Every structure is written in C-alpha cells, then in structure tokens.
Amino acid sequence: MNLLDFCGYTTYNGTVATKGGETISEPKKTGRPTDNPKDTMFRVRLDDKSVQQLEESAESLKISKSEVVRKGIELVHKSLKK
Predict the structure, then answer these.
(1) Which class for 18: exposed (0-12), middle (13-18), buried (19 or more C-beta within 10 A)?
(2) What is the full DSSP assignment across 65-81?
(3) Whole-angstrom Cα distance, residue 5 to residue 59?
(4) Would the CA dihedral through 43, 46, 50, 55 be positive or negative?
(5) What's the pLDDT score for residue 11?
(6) Using one digit for the tens of pLDDT, what is the confidence trace for 20-60?
(7) Taking a C-beta distance cutoff of 8 angstroms, is the pair 58, 65 a contact?
(8) Which run of H or E residues covers position 6?
(9) Is the dihedral of CA 25, 29, 35, 38 positive or negative?
C-alpha cells in the first residue's frame, strides 16, 4: 500500500498534480514576460468586513484584489519610514 497516493507541488509557472508518480495535470503556460514576477503566494484570513472592503476597493479602482493588497502594503511601509 502506498501511503502517499496524491502529491502536488508548485513550480514557478503553475501547479502540477501527480498520482502514483504519473502526471495528471500539466503546468500552466507562462504569460507575458515581466520585470517584476509575482511568484510568491501568501495566504491570509480575513473577516467578512475586510473582504467586503477589499472587493469594494478593487471594484472602485478597477484593479485586482491582489493589487489593492500590494498598494496597502506599500502605504503602511511608507508610513513607517516617516
């Protein structure tokens, strides 16, 4: 009996799932080259109010939720340097 029947791992261009040593999904194709690749994924827990604020901000600014978070990090970081 094989204890590890399913295994997934992250590569720089996507996730590949394997089962029993056999690939069952291919990595995503790479997009347009960039000078600032965003290859680190960060998971965070939010309450309902924060989720609503994030969604409203992204919609109002017409940017992604990820970009709103990056802008928030930048604002907090700038305020620390004062």
Answers:
(1) middle
(2) HHHHHHHHHHHHHHHHT
(3) 41
(4) positive
(5) 45
(6) 666 666 666 667 778 888 888 889 999 999 999 999 999 99
(7) yes
(8) strand 6-11
(9) negative
Pairwise CA distance, residues 54 & 50, whole Å:
6
Q: Which residue has the tokens 């709103």?
A: 68
CB atoms within 10 A of CB 65: 13
- From the CB of residue 68, how many other CB atoms can be counted at a distance below 10 Å? 19
Q: What is the DSSP string of 13-25?
A: TEEEEEETTEE-S
Q: What distance in Å separates the CA atoms of residue 9 and residue 12, rounded to the nearest whole number? A: 10
Residue type, 80: L
